[in-house]
Amino acid sequence: VSTQSTGSAPHLNYDPYKQEPAGSAVLVWLKGLGLEEYSKVFTDYGYDDMGVVADISEQDLDFLKIKKPGHQKKILLAASKLARRTIRESVMMQADEWSSLMLTLRSRDRGMNE
To answer: What is each CA distance from 101 to 89, 91, 96, 97, 109, in whole angstroms?
Structure first.
């Protein structure tokens, strides 16, 4: 995974879902944020799934003993972007499923009318 800067922070264009084994996505995500020092605490406390990380809160960060305000802000901002992306992808999948269902029903209706 490339973390070369393109004029913006590397994590803004970072895609933890691509090119990485499922179990390492959180670790790669943290590395992309420049916060790999928290990899062990994330995995030790079960924050090893991107869905869980997308819902992380300031209270979670306090529990994980991540106290530096800049690090908290960076993690919360990136997690928020993950959450929005997850919602967007979920809506798109539901739209695709709805479209498939409509096509199936139209095909079935045509077959019944013939």
So the answer is: 18, 15, 9, 6, 12
